[in-house]
Write a structure and sequence with these properties.
The structure is a single chain. It contains four helices and five strands; from the N terminus they run ααβαββαββ. The chain is of the alpha/beta class. The radius of gyration is 17 Å and the shape is elongated. The two termini are 26 Å apart.
């Protein structure tokens, strides 16, 4: 829900019209959502997780559309199949090591009988190519 809220707020601020297909973070909902989006004639796509990205990419390829080249496309999560795409798929990547470290710290705190804080936020980054990442500070802002 946070991803959706942040995306819609950023799109509205940029004056970008959106069409949203809701999914269940599974590959099939990515496939169904991408089919529906292609029917509307969208001119760019942002997916919300790796499985839906995979489903959406498969539909694009089946339709003869190359994600990132024939259709501006940003996926979510850095998983092995995405390294096979040419051109590389821009991805919003989460800090998996940071997530694992935080999870262990929370578990250790619980084992000590402590009540850990209920919310932890870790940054994500946009990976433009397999070897290129940018930080939020490097993202151009339009005033």
């Amino acid at each position: 829900m946070e991803r959706l809220a942040e995306f819609t707020a950023a799109a509205a601020e940029a004056g970008v019209e959106t069409v949203i297909e809701h999914g269940d973070f599974q590959e099939e909902s990515g496939r169904a959502g991408m089919r529906a989006l292609l029917e509307t004639g969208v001119d760019a796509v942002l997916t919300a997780d790796s499985r839906m990205t995979l489903g959406a990419v498969r539909v694009c390829l089946e339709a003869g559309i190359t994600p990132s080249a024939g259709l501006p496309f940003v996926g979510f999560d850095d998983i092995a199949p995405f390294t096979l795409l040419q051109p590389p798929l821009p991805l919003i990547c989460q800090d998996l090591e940071g997530m694992a470290t935080t999870a262990v710290q929370l578990l250790e705190a619980q084992l000590r009988g402590e009540r850990p804080q209920t919310e932890h936020r870790l940054p994500a980054h946009l990976r433009l190519t397999p070897a290129t990442t940018i930080t939020e500070a490097e993202v151009p802002h339009h005033d």
